[in-house]
Amino acid sequence: MRAKASDMHSKDCVKVAVRVRPFNKRERDAGSRCVVSMVSSSITIQDPRDPQIRRSFCFDYAYWSHSGFTRDHSSLYVPEEPGGRYADQDSVFQDLGEGILENALQGYNATLLAYGQTGSGKSYSMMGYGANKGLVPKLCARLFQAIRDNQENRQCQVFFSMLEIYNEQVVDLLSRGSRTLGGLRVREEQQRGFYVEGLRTVPCESTPQVEQLMEQGTRTRTTAATHMNANSSRSHMLIILQLKQIFSKESITKQSNINLVDLAGSERQRSSGSEADRLKEGTAINLSLTTLGNVISALADVAVGKKVVHIPYRDSVLTKLLQSALGGNSRTVMIATLSPADICYEESLSTLRYAERAKRIQNRPVVNESPTERLVKELKAENARLLQRLSRLGQEGRRANDETKELRQLLAHNELQIRAIQTLWEQHLQEALKDWEQQYASITQERRMMQMHPYILNINEDTQLSGVVKLFIQEGEWNIGLCDSSSRSISIKGLGIQDRHAVFRNEQRRVTLTPLEGSKVIVNGISICQTTELQHLDRLILGSNCTYLFVGYPSERGGDDWSRYDYDYFQSELAAAEGIHLGESSSGSSQTDPSLLAVFYDYIKLMPMVAEANQMSQELSKGVDFKLEIKNLALSDSKGHDLQKDIVVRVTSKGSKQVWMWSKAKFINRKFLMEEVYQQHQAEQSEDNESTAEGPMAVALPRDKDPFWDPVEPLLLGTAHLWLQSLAFRIPLEEQLEVLGSEGTEEAILQAQLVPCTSTGLPLGEDDILIDPSEILGRRLDFQLVLEQCCGLRWIREARNRGVQIGFRLFDCSQPLYTPAVWHNVNPLLDHRVHFASLHTSQKLLDYLQSSAVVLELWGLQDGCIHLSSSLEEVRMTADGIFIIDEAGPTETAPLDTAELSCLVRALQQDLEELKSVNASLRKENHSLRDQLNTARNGVEGVRGRSVRPSCDAEFARALKVFYHSMTAVRAQLQRLRRHRPSEESDLLGLRLFVDEQSRLLRDFSEQLEQSVSALKQDVAAIVRRKRERSGIWS
């Protein structure tokens, strides 16, 4: 190939387009807000947590596909009004697809990259759905139309290839044979650059042929994803169209490569804990996407003049194949898709930043030309000269046998070259036509069988891969499983699928499904173990996660909308069977709770991954069990507000009883590492058949590299709330607290006390109780937190070799404090006492005491884990071991000079003299009033002044103490009411019993509350009455 001289030094920036999709069902259910706005080609995104923070970006193209559209009679999405702002598929193609096509026809390499998080609309923009064709099918249709329009002055040849990159392995999606172990190899040549060795290229001459090849590739991709236990959202899909244009008159051939790339989901895995994993993050799964980001960043730095030593093209398979598209010989367009929902803000902002970097990249595209026709003419001319030379040799009668033989060999070689050049395309095309006819015949047969028999239809997380595989259930008995040796077997592959997994029976137009021993079969979310009759549109899950929709006989198929039975529907059904319902609020109301929706969708997303991890653990004999839990489902903070909920995975070693809690991000990372171990194990087993006969064998890995293992750490088992309001009145409090686990289970009973005390630790008496908490402002407050005993520890009841600690943090303590560890005891005696003191009680501390609780955290310890210790470096303590709280210092003021200080001292001295004189006058008045009081007392019968009566303040204090103790019982009853819920398995009778029990609890709660308030009213009325009687002395 050679390039035109005029093109050698031209630069061309990557064109970037951004498309904003509509809200999906999840976002609509959550009541999401749109945080993206668009004006012309400028996009602004607003931080949902702070509306004042806005970030704006400008791109070559911006498409608003979020709103303002309707569906016409042919199911096309079009603008509601002519000229509306909604960008449909045609609008996107006219800007992007037409430009790519024009570049290819001019002889340039062209690349289209689709980037964005999973579910942001990448596949819809690239492939489309139904009548709404995407960029790829529209581009292919327009390409062949352009070829037909220009067939008079050029001959065109189109070759089609389709491949997938998953976990750094290249899979040929059009391959006829079995999948190559480890994938195809990527090689490099000086002329061609990087290429995939052995990748099948199929010649095409019409749009239907290309569509058929894409369907075949999608089918292969679906099957490969099932066999490899792969997540399609983590794979990259590349379609390569090679266009060869032969211009006879100019004796020139132009050859272009059109790369259409649907990149893997770009979302970042995040968790509330965001702890680092000891094992490598993301593994090879994320390598290509990470390296692509590094390449784009490096090229963007080059474009703005920064010195870049190395651009890491060679660090991943994807960047090797895209080297020409990024900074090389190609005209490149990137379409970045994003969700405008507030719950996707972080991912959408990341996508916009990524796209902004990409638009700085400068490529150097050239027209790829070669003198192919000239070569044919030169070969023919050389053959003519060789024939003339041979004839001259014959005429001269010279005996030159050797020379004649050499000339004839050259002549034959040239003829072969000419014939190869002219016939290669026709041969390839004929072979492709034969394949296409066979594929067409099989499709026709499949459609015929769909109108005759029931079948099961695959459902995939990627909508593009759903409905691709149809397994027909003809009359009679059919085994389904790994084994395909029998003529009456249906072969499927996947995690947890046995050789003979289940049996379908189709008799008298009734289809039944019978699981075989040890196999896992789920119908409509319910696990079955006996013969079950299937109904039209029943949902089947075979093994860990092979999901199928049962389609009955044609007579049973009405006008049902099958599209509602997507992958999420299957998982939601499974979650409902486990008691996890969509948006179920803590109050039990039927209204969807938006705070739980994100957690619910994370839950159903991770359910199949957890099932696969458990299956891999079983097959690899790891003895590890994985279980999904909702973190903080029933827990609250010190103010009683709900904590942010998240998904965690509880990991339990069945042998040692060790337990780990993994965040969502950590589990997903480990899941991919488990897949690598599992696939390696499968490869070794296929090489050594003897090992399979001996049953599953444990895979030996060093502990530090085993994704199923982690060092043990303390686990947060649950929390209890000890409310501090009584301290504001200096009233002691003694409570038995329920320690509730993350999902509301009772983990233990904790006996705790709050004891107001003196600075030496002696408990205060009733006379020290305050009626008005503000009296304590500016004064010293001492109290002790006493943790006496823990009872009924479920954590230790499950395994006696465990221990516990209690942790807590009070007010402005920067570090948590912990009790000493206690081991092997279900009812351990803690006897832990901590003395706190505020030297000058502030309003802030008083507000805290009246509205907050100290959250007591129960931590579980295991053999080999480090105890939790209190870090006292930043905590202020006295020599007696008293913890000082409420240390807010005086407000800082600007430094004063000497003159200002002397003026202030004089003013203070004057104020002091005035206060002394006021104090003296008040003392005189006090003496006078005391004399009058004594005189009045002496004149009253009964000499009341001699009787010693308790002060009204003390009476008020005692009444309040009784009230607070009674309210403690009321609060406990309220907590029981909150936790009281019917069982998921309750029938009508069970629900009636639950209603009766709930009514009784409500009645008890009401009576306790009424009694407490009534007692307080009576006490207060009696105190007021006595006070009035006493005040009658002066009346």
From TrEMBL:
Residues 13-361 form the Kinesin motor domain. One of its GO terms (molecular function) is microtubule binding. InterPro entries: FHA_dom (IPR000253), Kinesin-like_KIF1-typ (IPR022140), Kinesin_motor_dom (IPR001752), Kinesin_motor_dom_sf (IPR036961), P-loop_NTPase (IPR027417), SMAD_FHA_dom_sf (IPR008984). It is a peripheral membrane protein. SUPFAM superfamilies: P-loop containing nucleoside triphosphate hydrolases, SMAD/FHA domain. ATP binds at G116, Q117, T118, G119, S120, G121, K122, S123. GO terms for cellular component: mitochondrial membrane. Keywords: ATP-binding, Coiled coil, Membrane, Mitochondrion, Motor protein, Nucleotide-binding, Transport. Pfam families: FHA (PF00498), KIF1B (PF12423), Kinesin (PF00225). GO terms for biological process: microtubule-based movement. It comes from the Eukaryota. It is found in: Mitochondrion membrane. CDD domains: FHA_KIF28P (cd22709). Residues 898-939 form a coiled coil. Microtubule-dependent motor protein required for mitochondrion morphology and transport of mitochondria in neuronal cells. Belongs to the TRAFAC class myosin-kinesin ATPase superfamily. Kinesin family. This is Kinesin-like protein 6. The gene is kif28.
